[in-house]
Write a structure and sequence with these properties.
elongated
C-alpha cells in the first residue's frame, strides 16, 4: 500500500549537518552504518559543485527566460504575469499531494512499468519547467511593478533621489521579511542544492506547516 502523501507532504525534510572531523567517517543514523566518506568532504564537494556547475546553469536558465520576456514585453505585462505567477504557485501548492501520490510506484507498483515510469519522468520535467516559468514571471512582474512605482514617484532617472528611494524600498522589504522570520528565502543557488526525485520535485516548503507526528489520537473511555 503506497504511503499517504498527505501525511508525508508536510514532514520535516531539512537535514541538520554537524561538523565532523575529516578523518572520521560519517554515521548514517537511519541505516545504523558508517559511510566511507567524511561529512566535511561531502559538504565541500557539494559547495564546489553548486558554485561552479549548478549555479551558472540556474542563472543561465533564469536570465535567458527573463531575456525572452523582455524581447516580447508586450506579451508579458508586469501586473498580469505577477498575478499569473501567484496563481500557478498556489495551484501547485494545493495539488502537490496528488502529484506525489500518483508518482509513487511508477516503476515497482501494481500498475507500474517502464511506460508509466517514463511518463512520470516527462511529467515531472514539464512540471518543473512550468514552475520555473511561474517563478520568473512572479519575479519579473514584481520587479517591473516596483520600477513603475519608482518611476511615478521620481520620473527623472537622473534624479539623485531615485537611488535613495530604491534603498528605502530595499531596507523596508528586508526589515519586513526579517520580522516575518523569512529572510532565509533570500538564499538561492549555490546555497541550496537538490537532486531530481519525486519528493524533491513535488514537495516544497510553505510557511504554514502542520505535522501529525507530534500528536496522538486518544479515544475516550467507554
Amino acid at each position: 500500500m503506497p504511503p499517504n502523501a498527505n501525511d508525508n507532504i508536510l514532514a520535516e525534510t531539512e537535514r541538520v549537518f554537524e561538523k565532523v572531523p575529516s578523518e572520521e567517517p560519517c554515521y548514517d543514523e537511519e541505516n545504523e552504518v558508517e559511510n566511507e566518506c567524511s561529512c566535511d568532504e561531502t559538504s565541500y564537494g557539494d559547495a564546489v559543485f553548486s558554485t561552479f556547475v549548478v549555479a551558472p546553469l540556474v542563472v543561465s536558465v533564469w536570465r535567458g527566460t527573463w531575456g525572452i520576456m523582455e524581447l516580447h514585453s508586450h506579451l508579458f505585462p508586469y501586473a498580469q504575469i505577477y498575478l499569473l505567477g501567484i496563481i500557478i504557485h498556489a495551484c501547485f501548492a494545493l495539488g502537490r499531494a496528488y502529484l506525489l501520490e500518483r508518482s509513487e510506484g511508477a516503476w515497482s507498483g501494481t500498475n507500474g512499468g517502464a511506460g508509466r515510469w517514463l511518463w512520470e519522468r516527462i511529467l515531472s520535467k514539464f512540471y518543473t519547467y512550468v514552475f520555473t516559468l511561474s517563478c520568473i514571471m512572479h519575479w519579473r512582474g514584481g520587479w517591473g511593478l516596483l520600477d513603475t512605482v519608482v518611476a511615478k514617484i521620481v520620473p527623472n532617472d537622473r534624479d539623485p533621489h531615485r537611488p535613495i528611494l530604491y534603498a528605502a524600498f530595499t531596507l523596508t522589504f528586508y526589515i519586513s521579511i526579517t520580522f516575518l522570520r523569512s529572510a532565509r528565502n533570500l538564499l538561492a543557488s549555490p546555497f541550496f542544492l537538490f537532486t531530481d526525485g519525486k519528493e524533491p520535485t513535488y514537495i516544497f516548503t510553505t510557511r504554514f506547516k502542520k505535522t501529525v507526528s507530534n500528536y496522538f489520537l486518544v479515544e475516550p473511555p467507554p
